[in-house]
Please model this.
Amino acid sequence: MLNLILFGPPGSGKGTQAEKLIDKYNLKHISTGNLLRSEVSAQTQLGIEAKKFMDAGELVPDEVVIGMISNALDEHSNSVKGFIFDGFPRTVAQAEALDKLLTEKSLSISKVLSLHVSEDELVDRLLKRAKDSGRADDNEETIRNRMKVYREKTSVVADYYADQVKLADIVGEGSIEDISASICKQIDA
Ligand code: AP5
Model:
C-alpha cells in the first residue's frame, strides 16, 4: 500500500495537490479539515464542539481527530491501494497515534511530502479563498493565528518524519501542475 502524508502550513496547497494524486495512484483521500467541516454542517455534537476551535484558528483536540482517522482507516483499509492524509497529523501525538493505528493493520507511512510556501503568499491565498469559500478563516487575524499554531505545534511533525527518513521537501510556489510533477517525482523515486 502507498500511504502518503501531504504536510504543510494552512494554504500550502495540500487539498489542491491531493485531488491530483487520488486518481493517478488510486488512493483514498482523508482530510481531517473536510471531515470536521462535514460534522459542523451536520451540527453533530462533535461538530458543535469542533467549530469553536476552528473559528479561532486553533487545533481541535487530538483525541477527536485521532478517533475520526481510526474510523476512516477501519472503513477503507481493505478497499483501496493506499491513503493520502491531508491536514493530519498536526501534532507529534497525532503522528505517534497514526503510526500505532497503521502498525495494527500491518501498514506504514511511505512518504511525507512537505510543501514550502512563504507566509505572505499563504495569507494572500487564504484571503482570496475566503471571498467565496465560507470557511472559518475568512479574516487576517484568524489566518495569522493559524500560522502561529502551525509554527508552534505542527512544524515539529516534520522532524518526526525526518528522523524516520520519510520526509521529502517540495517547493510549494509556482504552477499547480509543476508542483504536482515535483510531488509525483518524489513518490515514484
Ligand atoms: P484544514 O481544512 O485541514 O486546513 P489546512 O490544512 O490548513 O488546509 P487548508 O484547506 O486551509 O489549506 P491547504 O493546504 O489544503 O491548501 P488548499 O489546497 O486549500 O483545517 C481547518 C481547521 O480544522 C484547522 O484550523 C483546525 O481547527 C481543524 N483541524 C483540521 N485537521 C486537524 C487536525 N489534524 N488536528 C487538529 N485540528 C484540525 O489551497 C489554498 C488556496 O490556495 C486555494 O484557494 C487554492 O486554490 C490556492 N492554491 C493552491 N495551490 C496554489 C498555487 N500553486 N498557486 C496559487 N494558489 C494556489
Q: What stands out?
A: The pocket of BIS(adenosine)-5'-pentaphosphate is lined by residues 8, 10-16, 32-33, 36, 53-54, 57-60, 65, 87-88, 90, 94, 125, 129, 146, 176, 179 (CB under 6 Å). The radius of gyration is 16 Å. The chain has a mean pLDDT of 94. The chain has nine helices and five strands.
